Amino acid sequence: MSGRRYRHIFKKLCWGRNHNLQKAISYASRTATRHVRGDLEIIKKNDIEACKNNCNPELAAPLATDVKEAYKGGGSQSISGACHRQKCATICTVSGKEVLDKVGWAFSPTMKLCWGRNHNLQKAISYASRKATRHVRGDLVPAFTLAEVLITLGIIGIVAAMTLPALINNANNAQYKAQLQKAYSVIQQALMRLNTDQGFIATQESYDMHKFAPAIKKYLVQGKDCGMADCKGNGTDDDWGLLLSNIYITYNGNKGYNANFDEGQSILANGMFIMIDNDGLNPICISVDINGYYKRPNRFGYDVFMFQIDNKTGKLLPMGMDGTRYPYSQFCSTTSTSNRNGLGCTIKAITDPNYFRNLPK
Q: How confident is the model at residue 318 (pLDDT cuts 50, 70, 90)?
């Protein structure tokens, strides 16, 4: 087939007239068939003329008739065979090159017809059609079937369902760690500035009940001052008269103790929630919900941590250290039933780089 004809087929493919691959191949095959038939007509004319010019004049007319009959019968015998039987020239050698120039390399079956390898016209056409099909398939852009796309999407969905929770959990844990470090720094700096400005160390002895919160709040960048407990109430009493929180839970999921959070509260500008315990009987404690009580998990040892002001040095100690009210060994346990469990996890959360990766579910 000539380059022009080939381009004509591909133009129709590209212009959207044959979107379906099977239709495109079928169209290309039918087009090839028409062109092969047209070119074989040229061979007939050329071969008959060759027989007339190269054979004995007395045999020319019968040969012409013989050749015509050969083609009329579907090419059951080759033209060259007909001529050779009458001792004529090898007509396909003469006419073949001329025809090949017209047909082009892609449709060499026309030469094979002359060389005797495809005597039947239908076989030649079938061969040309198959060859056209291979070239069309080669030039078409490969694509996925709908089933393949759906299967792939299904696999991606399964993998995402398996991996996304872990990725989200890791991201949350990293955020908790960064927020805890930030809260520790903010409270520590506020306390140091308070001690510097007032000229003495803030401790349980230097601040009476409910007096510490108004003093420290001056050194915090507040978004909202909640007074004593205006932002989060005391909660409810249990059977023993202890105040249990309606919002916070312990390290292992039970209702958390609430009486440590009701002697001064403040929502900082960065969203952290500060809660102070200054009952006059115990060391002053400062708790912080690092992402605010509007955001979960609202759980001791996860996003709620407690610090204690040392009575001797005035330093801010992460709860859980030796000498603090809630030691780590007792109040950061997966098996403890204490309603304060988790308040002693602060020291571990600050010092252990793998702490947030190993939180109980």
A: very high
